[in-house]
Amino acid sequence: MQKRALVVGLGIAGMSAAIGLRQAGWQPVIVERAPERRIGGYFVGLMPEGRRAAADLGIAGHLPARNPPDGGKTWSLTRRGSLEPGLGFLHLPGDPLAVIRGDLEAALWQGTLGDGTSEPVDVRFATKPVEIDDTGADVRVLLEDTGTGTWYRESFDLVVGADGLRSSVRRTVFGPHENHMTTWDTMICAFELQEQVPSFARADSLISARAGRAAWVFSFADRPPTAMLTYRTGDIEGQFTGSRVERLRTVFSEMDDPVVRHALDSVERAPDLLFDSVHQVKMPRWSRGKVVLVGDAAWCLNLFSGMGATSGLLGGAELGRALRENPDDLGAALASWESRLRPFITKHQRIARLKQQMFVPSSRPAEALRSVVLRLACTARERRLARTRAAEGSAS
Ligand SMILES: Cc1cc2nc3c(=O)[nH]c(=O)nc-3n(C[C@H](O)[C@H](O)[C@H](O)COP(=O)(O)OP(=O)(O)OC[C@H]3O[C@@H](n4cnc5c(N)ncnc54)[C@H](O)[C@@H]3O)c2cc1C
């Protein structure tokens, strides 16, 4: 009989896992707490591992490439108010594919619908698990349809918790959030700009970073840029009280440059914004019995890593592969999946701390060091590009 899996969460990791499970011959059911698809989101740079996973899941053809030509120009605004060439996210090694999270969501959604050779995935909105009971033989899950208020029980051969940073599957099966979520004393606010910062070209990306606070503008070839304001604070709880816009204005009051001014004016008009504290999730094991966590629920790398979407796609695709390779031994499949993925995740969890210093330096000395490192990296990149152009010139 076909094995059934419950996937909790219709995000990047949940849909990737569902498609991976279906490829492995399983029958996935996705439950999503929200009443409809969550199509929002801002800049995502898809790294090579994410692009490969998208290809494995058969959704790469649904993804647009929104990279500005040659990655566009990136400018850093200095304390003195001058502009210096900067290094943006799209200049990272691996040529990240610039998309918005909604592009990935839409491509994966298309993938869940099936293509004639595969069945559409059963997706139930406004539904969440209330109890998860792993009996050893199966997992009995009490589900709540929050639209009608009805509760019902179903049995599955596997439960996949893909319900994000504050995962309820993790809390229910693996223990309280405090045991697994590390605090980074940093806030982020991401949103779409209605228009580019005045006097800059459409494809320019912009960075204004000072000790403890920073504004980033990520540009695309074919749509308005998105912005991220980020700041460090010792009082995370306090950030969630009162008006977010007023709080941002206070935090950024000492940074009076065109990027910050434009971002603060735009945030007031942004119809949709992501405002949250930054965390990582660290767990000694991502599965227990017949329950496994993927994506932010298991390892949240966070926005500074730039690997959240990539690792969500990879986690789901690799789960499917491990189940395909171990069709009759769930324990072996989960163990092999985790041992393949863990070195990658551990590496990027570590690197994220360094990247955080690049996004928002922790102090004046860190800010100064960051400037030196970036200047050297920019010079090295310019030299590399010049060499490539010269080699191309002499070849033609
Ligand atoms: C609306 C939205 C916008 C985002 N925007 C960005 C962005 O601009 N840039 C960026 O880098 N990252 C963004 N992220 C985060 C990014 O998508 C993730 O870091 C990464 O893709 C891994 O995703 P995930 O599927 O593990 O978790 P998530 O993307 O958080 O998805 C989890 C899903 O589970 C659902 N869920 C939660 N609890 C339950 C429950 N109890 N029962 C059923 N369902 C539940 C949530 O509604 C959500 O749909 C965004 C996430 C969301 C949800």
TrEMBL record:
<dbReference type="InterPro" id="IPR051704">
    <property type="entry name" value="FAD_aromatic-hydroxylase"/>
</dbReference>
<dbReference type="GO" id="GO:0071949">
    <property type="term" value="F:FAD binding"/>
</dbReference>
<feature type="domain" description="FAD-binding">
    <location>
        <begin position="5"/>
        <end position="323"/>
    </location>
</feature>
<dbReference type="InterPro" id="IPR036188">
    <property type="entry name" value="FAD/NAD-bd_sf"/>
</dbReference>
<protein>
    <submittedName>
        <fullName>2-polyprenyl-6-methoxyphenol hydroxylase-like FAD-dependent oxidoreductase</fullName>
    </submittedName>
</protein>
<dbReference type="Pfam" id="PF01494">
    <property type="entry name" value="FAD_binding_3"/>
</dbReference>
<dbReference type="InterPro" id="IPR002938">
    <property type="entry name" value="FAD-bd"/>
</dbReference>
